[in-house]
Amino acid sequence: MGKFDGKTVIITGAGQALLKDGKPGAIGYGIAIAFAKEGANLVITGRNVEKLTRAKEALEAEYGIRVLPVRADVEKSADNAAVVKNVVDSAIKEFGRIDVLVNNAQASASGVTLADHTTDQFDLAIYSGLYATFYYMQECYPHLKETKGSVINFASGAGLFGNYGQCAYAAAKEGIRGMSRVAATEWGPDGINVNIICPLAWTAALENFQEQYPDAFEANVHMPPMGHYGDVEAEIGRVVVQLASPDFKFMSGETVTLEGGMGQRP
User: Fold this and answer.
1) Which residues are part of the catalytic machinery?
2) 12, 136 Cβ separation under 8 angstroms
3) For 36-60, what is each residue's pLDDT tens digit?
4) What is the pTM of this model?
5) Are 86 and 138 in contact, with CB atoms under 8 Å apart?
6) What is the distance between the alpha carbons of residues 181 and 168, in angstroms, rounded to a whole number?
7) Could you tell me the end-to-end alpha-carbon distance of the chain, in angstroms, rounded to an integer?
8) Which residues neighbour 134 within 8 Å (Cβ) at sequence distance 6 or greater?
9) Distance CA 194, CA 158 (A)
C-alpha cells in the first residue's frame, strides 16, 4: 500500500527527460516517479508530447499506476485560463478528484544579463512560471478544498540570492513565493497547505545550460557542501511527497531549500 493510493496528483512540466547516462534528468519527472512509487494517479503536463508519452509509458509499466498526459503551454499569446481549465477538467473527468498540485513548469532565458534581456524573454519566464502557477492554483482550488489537499510550488535560489544572468527567472520565482505565502494564509482555513521548494538537482536542462552559457554556469552553479547535486527523484521528488503527506499538514507558507547546504539564509 502506498501513501497516495487512490489519490490524484497534477504535476506541471513532468515530461520524461534523461541525462546523458540514461538516469532521470528532469525534476518534474523525478517527482512523478516519487509519487508513482506511492500509488498516486498522475496528471502530467508539458509542451512536448513525445516526452509526456514516454513518461506515461515508463511510469505505467514500472509502477502499475494510471497516468494522464495533457499537453499544456502557458504563454503570452494563449488563452491561458482555458489551457489550464482543460487540464483540470481532464483530471476530474479521468480520476474524479485532485489531491495534490505541483507547479514545477518553468522556461527562461537564463544566462542573459538584465541589460540585455528582451521583453519577450522576460515574458517567457513570467508566463511559463508565475502566470502558470496562478492559473493552476485558481482552477484547482475548489477541488483541493474538497480533498483538503496540498500545493507544492517551485521557486529558486536565483531569486533568493540574485544569481547572475537570471533576472526574469528570479522575478518569476520570487513572485511564486509571494503568491504561495498569500495562499497559505487564505487557504489554511480550507485545510489546504501550500509550500515552496528551491531545488538544486543535476538535470538535462542544467547539462544544456553548462554547454550553452558556460560563463553563467560557472558564476551560478557550484558544488554544494554535501559534495553532489541533488537526485531528481530521491532527493527532490521524495521531499515533495512528504510535503503533501499528512505528517506535514501543519507546515504551510514555508520555503524549503534543497541545495545540499548551499541554500542557507537567515
Assistant:
1) 169
2) yes
3) 999 999 999 999 999 999 999 999 9
4) 0.96
5) no
6) 20
7) 40
8) 179
9) 21
